[in-house]
Specification:
By secondary structure, the chain is of the alpha/beta class. Among the domains are: 161 residues, Beta Barrel (OB fold (Dihydrolipoamide Acetyltransferase, E2P)), CATH 2.40.50.1070; 198 residues, 3-Layer(aba) Sandwich (Rossmann fold). 25% of the residues lie in helices and 23% in strands. The chain has 13 helices and 21 strands. Strands 1, 2, 3, 13, 14, 15, 16, 17, 18, 19, 20 and 21 form a twelve-stranded mixed β-sheet that branches. The protein has a seven-stranded mixed β-sheet with strand order 6-5-4-7-8-9-10. Helix 8 links the parallel strand 14 and strand 15. Helix 3 crosses helix 5. The longest helix has 16 residues. The protein starts with a strand and ends with a strand.
């Protein structure tokens, strides 16, 4: 079962990790004796949710590798392991937020296989490329299940051929379902259950000029007519197309097209409106992510200068700019698709935000010290493998590096006009800059607080032990968040570290799952 932890903040050592867990993309097998319900039944399901037993009670559990634990969703086994680990490194008050246990997943990528008369829309079976249906998934937001059922009806009615991996034939390869609960016309408690679904159809062709594009349009119109604003149920937000012909396992191609509905997709998290395109990374559990952001904000001093590494579309850094009135926020991300979402999110920041804000297209592993210079707080949100080795090395030796920078007559990092390194020049070229507050005095200073967010418990533990063994950081606080109830394999963690005078640094750590 997934969980999220936020480790205690460490003094005299600057470090704060955050880790997230992700459910396995394994397939689910539907029971032949229980056919999928009609669309109205999916939307108006009155089956009571188990409130006392905290059990999954999902018909797909034994055949689905997405969820590995059926009981005690509120207290994954890994919570006890995390509690013991944090005690061993000096954090005795680790806490865990259980969050929503059913219907929490607001983003899902599903394979489409089978035949037009009997389409299979679901996940790969563990260790295979056999797709099994998950029409009644308890983890999915209810409107994702409703959209899947509507898509199934459209595939059959319009004779859409699901993709055949062996032959490379067929038309519909995958579908991504993403739910937005952003609706200011509704009271806050009603927004989640009334979420709208953005449907992205991955079409087996190079572009919209293919011979079967008319069938793609027909399928989009079917979804919009039966689930859009003029239908009785009104749960479809928009329809997008992605074009992919590759024979590898990469789900999306590079070409996207907006077909119907709203082009903008928004979510409210961490006190700001966040824009997400279909190609952007988005948290599957938006409620848990919001809780994590609000917890994280408490470890950032007002008016601080912040660097957000592995930043994606900048949701973390921009939420800090808005809620902590940061002097500057610098976001660094390797995925160019995140740039547009970052720019749109910045446009909706509150008017009172007066930070110097920037986004840079760059690989964090290449000369990471250059991104840390001049920041008081660094936030890292690495993939499951953990921190890049080069960044970890810099963080382990941060005190000595700062002494060298301050003793140097003129820092090489301040000579922007003489910059010749190609990777830095590319990052500058592709950057976005908003505001221009003057730099801090002594821009050679390095972070005194580190906040770490990661999606792998094992890699997090190794990174944490490595940082603590350097004697430059101290773990101060740890928190856990239940990002993926029903799973155990992937977890998310958050911790924050604070740099101590001379050789001591404190760390605050948190974990999510």
């Amino acid at each position: 079962m997934p969980l999220c932890l936020l480790p205690n903040r460490l003094l005299p050592l600057p470090y704060c990790p955050l880790i997230t867990c992700h459910a396995s993309p394994a397939a689910l097998r539907s029971s032949p004796s229980s056919p999928p319900p009609t669309l109205p039944n999916l939307l108006n399901n009155t089956t009571p949710v188990p409130s006392l037993s905290c059990a999954l009670q999902c018909p797909h559990f034994q055949s689905c590798s997405g969820c590995t634990h059926e009981l005690n969703l509120h207290r994954p086994i890994i919570v006890d392991e995390a509690d013991q680990f944090f005690k061993s490194v000096g954090v005795s008050d680790f806490d865990f937020d259980s969050s929503r246990l059913w219907g929490w997943r607001s983003r899902a990528k599903l394979a489409v296989r089978g035949s037009s008369m009997k389409p299979l829309i679901g996940l790969y079976e563990e260790g295979t490329h056999n797709v099994v249906d998950i029409p009644h998934c308890k983890a999915h937001h209810p409107n994702i299940n409703a959209a899947v059922e509507l898509l199934r009806q459209g595939v059959t009615k319009l004779n859409i051929e699901p993709y055949d991996e062996d032959e490379g034939t067929g038309e519909l390869r995958y579908v991504q379902m993403a739910v937005t609960t952003y609706n200011t016309s509704l009271p806050a408690p009603e927004r989640y259950k009334n979420g709208k679904v953005q449907v992205s159809l991955v079409w087996n062709s190079r572009n919209e000029n293919s011979h079967n594009f008319e069938k793609l349009n027909a399928l989009a119109n079917f979804l919009w007519r039966n689930g859009g604003p003029k239908s009785d149920v009104r749960f479809i937000h928009s329809v997008w197309a992605n074009f992919q012909t590759s024979t590898n396992n990469i789900i999306f191609g590079n070409r996207w097209r907006h077909l119907l509905g709203e082009s903008g997709f928004w979510e409210h998290a961490g006190g700001i409106d966040v824009s997400l395109s279909p190609s952007s990374f988005g948290q599957a559990n938006t409620r848990a992510f919001d809780i994590l952001l609000r917890k994280l904000q408490k470890y950032v001093p007002y008016g601080a200068s912040v660097t957000d590494l592995y930043a994606g579309a900048g949701a973390i850094g921009l939420s800090l700019a808005a809620t902590r009135k940061c002097r500057s926020v610098k976001c660094v991300e390797v995925n160019k698709e995140s740039k547009l979402s970052f720019e749109k999110t910045v446009e909706r920041l509150p008017n009172y935000v007066d930070s110097s804000i920037s986004w840079h297209l760059a690989d964090t592993s290449v000369e990471p010290l250059s991104w840390l210079m001049g920041s008081e707080v660094v936030v890292v949100d690495p993939p499951r493998k953990g921190l890049d080795a080069s960044l970890l090395d810099v963080l382990r030796t941060i005190s000595s590096l700062e002494r060298k920078a301050k003793s140097a007559p003129e820092s090489s990092y301040s000579k922007v006009k003489d910059e010749k390194r190609p990777w830095v020049l590319r990052a500058m070229k592709d950057s976005v800059q908003i505001g221009s507050k003057p730099a801090l005095e002594g821009s050679e200073s390095l972070p005194q607080t580190l906040i770490y967010i990661s999606c792998g418990w094992e890699s997090f533990k190794e990174d944490c032990k490595s940082l603590l063994s350097s004697k430059k950081w101290r773990l101060e606080k740890a928190h856990g968040f239940n990002f993926f109830p029903g799973t155990q394999r992937y977890c998310s963690f958050l911790f924050s570290c604070i740099s101590l005078p001379k050789s001591a640094v404190s760390i605050s750590l948190g974990a999510l799952s």
